[in-house]
Amino acid sequence: MAHGGMAAARRGRTTGYAGLGALVALLIATAPASAQSNGGVTPTDPGPGPQLSPPPPGVVARAAPDLRTWRCVRRCENATSGPSGAVLRLRGRSLGRAYEVAFLGAPGDGDDVAAAPLRRTKRVVTVRVPLGAVSGPLLVSDRDGLESAAGTVPLAVTAAPALRIAGAAPTIEVQTHARRAFFAAAHPATVSYVVHGGAAARVLVELVRAGDGTVVASWDEGQIVPEAVQTVTWNGISGGHLQREGRYAFRVSAVSATGQRAISSRVRAKEPDPSVFRFLRNEFPVRGPHGYGEAIARFGGARNHQGQDVFASCGTPLVAARGGVVRFRQYQSAAGNYLIIDGQRTGVDYGYMHMRSPALVAPGERVRTGQRIGYVGRTGDATACHLHFEMWTAPGWYDGGHPFDPLATLMAWDRTS
Q1: How far apart are CA 212 and CA 347, in angstroms?
Q2: pLDDT exceeds 80 at position 262
Q3: Distance between CA atoms of 328 and 30, rounded to whole angstroms?
Q4: What is the pLDDT of residues 285-302, one digit of tens each?
Q5: Is the dihedral of CA 91, 94, 97, 101 positive or negative?
Q6: How far apart are CA 52 and CA 59, in angstroms?
Q7: Per-chain mean pLDDT for the chain
Q8: Residue 350: beta bridge partners?
Q9: Three-class DSSP category at 332
Q10: How far apart are CA 238 and CA 240, in angstroms?
């Protein structure tokens, strides 16, 4: 495998993965005899990453969102509390590219709910407290995947007032837990809903493809009591088939005992629709500002470059582009610290090379899409901090498959995830 860095290209020099192909037998000999799942262990928080290096040439480094203060400004119990639907005003720096605000709840990510900003400027973001949010700190993330530190003043989420009106038709409130959901991620697409009314109602939840209105999946929830928050999850599979990427919406309908019907609808036309999310099969692997370099960083060429370089500061987090099982975690003099994961339901192996230190996951371990697997580095034969990323057809990496150009795929992931 040939490889070169952006800095080397500017000096008219190349570097190479000379001899890596000759070491395939050694790699396989030192790999585990069987790369089986460990049973789907939920990934743990790896904690804060290393300090970032200066960005490589050509990469524009943006500051992460910096959340300083916030207060509740509408429908509040007081300045630091409010029910779902309350409006918060967050202040800080580098907030102009905010993508979503996460309501973190208790430690761990099992109860996290995120909402799209209503408005944003460099210093101010307003957001509505989403249905399903629980008391806890706030966090802002941007389109590069950069995140603020969790706010030091937690939000106290209070119970919304019950809307029990005898004989009235039910109404329904719906909220997805994130703006994007990834196949094979630790947490599937999740929606919370609540039926407002004076009595229990029979509820049907449908997952609808936003583009054409096709119902992809449905759940008969039975009789649901009013004012109790309910949740439904979807793993991306319907009828045994992995569904295509795109925008989906959860639609909830209810019929009361008296035959009165209600269906969830977008309440605030000028605000982001809380029932809609984007389903994606892969996540872009570099969590931070990055660039693709010059021609020498591309697939093929005179060096027989077998992947695509993505340049970023050393220490930038790397995540699994697709969940799967770790096949190899090794060090090689040219590739440095590298990791090979077989992509679940793809037949494709994904390779991550020049990592700063050995990967955070072990051979045979099942990895989730978007799980942190390591950090950008320049180990091995590398002249700048970057990820060398490879994709190999079945049956796999140096196991009968062959590499193909991942640039178009990476750029597609970059645009959507």
Answers
A1: 29
A2: yes
A3: 9
A4: 999 999 998 888 899 875
A5: negative
A6: 13
A7: 87
A8: 341, 391
A9: strand
A10: 5
Rounded CA-CA distance 178/188 in Å is: 10
Query: What type of residue sits at position 114?
Result: A
Residue of 128, 68, 136 whose CA lies nearest to 100: 128
Return all residues near 268 (Cβ < 8 A) that are at least 6 apart.
none
Structure tokens at 192: 């919370």
Residues near 194 by Cβ (< 8 Å), separated by ≥ 6?
131, 172, 173, 226, 227, 228, 229, 230
For the residues of 205-237, what is the DSSP string, one character each? EEEEETTT--EEEEEEEEEE-TT--EEEEE-SE
What is the secondary structure of 254-289 as a DSSP string? EEETTS-EEE---S-TTS--TTEEEEES---SB-S-
- Go through the domains of the chain in sequence order and give each one's CATH number: 2-59+289-416 (2.70.70.10), 66-157 (2.60.40.10), 171-280 (2.60.40.2550)
Q: Per-residue pLDDT for 87 more than 90?
A: yes
Residues paired with 362 in a beta bridge: none
Residue with the two structure tokens 């054409």 = 212
| pTM for the model | 0.86
pLDDT tens digits, 313-346? 999 999 999 999 999 999 999 999 999 999 999 9
